[in-house]
Amino acid sequence: MALNLQNLEAVAKENAAKDPSDIIRLALTEYSNLAISFSGAEDVVLVDMAHKIGGDFRVFSLDTGRLHPETYRLLDKVREHYKIDVEVFFPAPGAVEDLVKSKGLFSFRRDGHKECCGIRKVEPLTRALKPLDAWITGQRKDQSPGTRAEVPVVQNDATFGSPDSPLIKFNPLANWTSQQVWDYIRQNEVPYNELHDQGFISIGCEPCTRPVGPGEHERAGRWWWEEATQKECGLHSGNLREAS
Amino acid sequence: MHITMVKKRKLDGTDCRKCNQATEQLASRGLSDRINEIIWAVEGDPESPGMKLGEQHGVELAPFFLVRDDQGETQVYTSVMRLIKERLGAQVSSHEEASNVDPDDIGGI
C-alpha cells in the first residue's frame, strides 16, 4: 500500500508486526527527502539497520551543549564505523546566551525543563525537520507507559508538520522492547553509548539524565525532580491505568 | 470557523499542566473568547467526551484543538502556538513555539 496522509493509519496497522528493518525500508522507498534522528542512545540501531539496507540515507543529531562526553564519543564512533556524515544541529547562540544570562545554567531545576529544552533541543529540531518530508525516530511504546503507549510505526507528525507542509514520522522500533533492542545491539556488534554500561537507560542532557534503580522505569531517569503526574497529560487507557 | 478545545481534568479535579499553560497563552493574547467550546477528557473515565475525541482523532495528549472551517472540514491542532499562529492570526516567536513543545512528547531524540 503506497503511503499518503489519508491512509497512514491503515499502513501503520498493516505494518505493525513487521520487522523494524522493513519499516525503515518502506520509509526509504517512499521518501527521498527523509532523515534518521539519532540521539546518541539506543536509537543507533536505526543507523545500523539503514546501513545494512544500503543506499543513501541521512542522519542528524542535536548537540544541546549539555551532552555527556560519552555521547559525543558515540556520535564520532558512529560516524567512523558507518562512514557516514552525521548532521549535528546546535541551539541558536543568542537564545542560549539570553537564558543563561537571565536564569543561570540550571534554571530547569526551578522552572521545569521545557524552557531550556525549547531552546537547546526543540528549536534546533524544528530547524532540522523543516526541509524534510519524513523522519525516522527510535520511539518505542515501552519507553513510557504514560506518553508513548500508542506509538504507531508510522504517523502524521502533527507537532512539527502542518497542513501546508505535512511531515511523516516513522517509528520502526515502536513495537520492540528494550530487550529486543539490546539483543540486536549485541548480536550485530552495534557501537553503543558507554553510559548504558553504567546503568543509564534513557540518555539526554547530562544534568537531566541519571541511571535508574531496580524496578524503576527508564523514563524515571529523566527530569526526575518534576512530578511524574505533572509530566503526564495523556489521553489514553495506558495513562489511565498508570494514574489510577 | 468553530474551535473546540479539549482539556484534561485530573483525578484531583484540577486541569492538567499543559491545559493550564495553553489556557494562559490564549488569555495573555486576549484570545480566550475565540474558543467556542471546551470539552473535557476526565482522567479515569475513558467514556468522557474528551477521551473519546482523543481516541477518535488519534491524539495522545491534552490539550488539543479541533478547528472546523466554514466548509465543514475539521483540522486537529496539538500545539496551541500553532493554532494561535495559523488560525487566530496572532504573532508567535520561534522561541515561544519551541518552548511550547515538551521534548518528552516528541520521542526518538
What this model shows, in words?
The complex is a heterodimer of chains A (244) and B (109). Chain A has 244 residues and is of the alpha/beta class. Helix content of chain A is 39%, strand content 9%. Chain A is built from 10 helices and 6 strands, in the order ααβαβαβαααβββααα. In chain A, strands 3-2-1-4-6-5 form a 6-stranded mixed sheet. In chain A, helix 3 links the parallel strand 1 and strand 2 (58-62). In chain A, helix 2 (20-30) crosses helix 3 (44-53). The longest helix of chain A is centred in the middle third of the chain and has 16 residues, at 114-129. Residues 237-244 of chain A have low confidence and may be disordered. Chain B has one domain (2-96): Glutaredoxin. Chain B is 35% helix and 21% strand. Chain B contains 5 helices and 4 strands. Chain B has a 4-stranded mixed sheet. The longest helix of chain B is centred in the N-terminal third of the chain and has 12 residues, at 17-28. The chains are: A alpha/beta (244), B alpha+beta (109). The interface between A and B is large, with 53 and 43 residues.
